[in-house]
Specification:
The protein has helices at 73-86, 95-99, and strands spanning 2-6, 9-13, 22-26, 31-36, 45-53, 58-66, 111-114, 120-124, 131-136, 142-148, 152-158, 161-167, 173-179. The chain contains 2 helices and 13 strands; from the N terminus they run E-E-E-E-E-E-H-H-E-E-E-E-E-E-E. With 186 residues, the protein is mainly beta. The strands form 4 sheets. It has a 4-stranded antiparallel β-sheet with strand order 3-4-5-6, with no helix packed on it. A 4-stranded antiparallel β-sheet has the order 7-8-9-10, with no helix packed on it. Strands 11-12-13 form a 3-stranded antiparallel β-sheet, with no helix packed on it. It is globular.
């Protein structure tokens, strides 16, 4: 969290470039997934996923290498400007700049959820013009890479059906059903 202290008081906000661990719950398998998605500090990086059984034992723990994507400084500057406007702050050395976490690279995973079949869906950002989800099976093996439109947020998957939230140009959400088609490559 961001802790913003001023003479008027203290307030708490979510960090816009948060890289705290994510969790997802697979009800049918009674598993909790914990995703360590700390932003990389160098080019060689990996993120970790731990699957915990409901009794607390570890079902599996894996690390996945990836190529870090630099955080676009224009995006960081834009967020900073919006926050300065929102909090009435004009001085660049204010509480916002002191509290804002700006990693060198984007977090490797921005969202996660568990499918009804025990798969784990990890949203990856900045890889292509579209959003990409890496899909891990119940054993932690990377089984698929699924692309979606950049404004689509998948929320639920079962079998060949996925439900997602799609935002229009005014950020108004629409619930959309997608069909999952398995494609084999040779």
């Amino acid at each position: 969290n961001m802790i913003l202290r001023s003479p008027k008081g203290t307030s708490y906000r979510v960090q816009p470039f948060n890289d705290a661990p994510l969790t997802a719950y697979a009800a049918a398998q009674r598993r909790i997934f914990v995703i360590d998605r700390r932003a990389a500090v160098s080019r060689g990086a990996s993120y970790g996923v731990v699957a915990l059984k409901s009794e607390g034992d570890t079902a599996w723990s894996k690390r996945f290498e990836y190529t870090p994507v630099p955080l676009d400084r224009r995006v960081a500057d834009s967020v900073r400007k919006v926050m300065h406007r929102a909090y009435g702050s004009r001085d660049p050395t204010t509480m916002i700049d002191d509290s804002l976490f700006l990693p060198r690279f984007q977090s490797p995973v921005s969202e996660s959820f568990a499918g009804e079949d025990g798969t784990l869906w990890l949203r990856r950002e900045g890889l292509v013009a579209k959003a990409r989800y890496d899909v891990l099976d119940a054993s932690g093996v990377l089984r698929a890479k699924v692309e979606a439109g950049p404004l689509v947020r998948l929320r639920w998957v079962s079998g060949t059906t996925a439900w997602g939230q799609e935002l229009d140009e005014n950020d108004v959400p629409t619930l959309v059903r997608y069909r999952i088609v398995r494609v084999t490559t040779r």
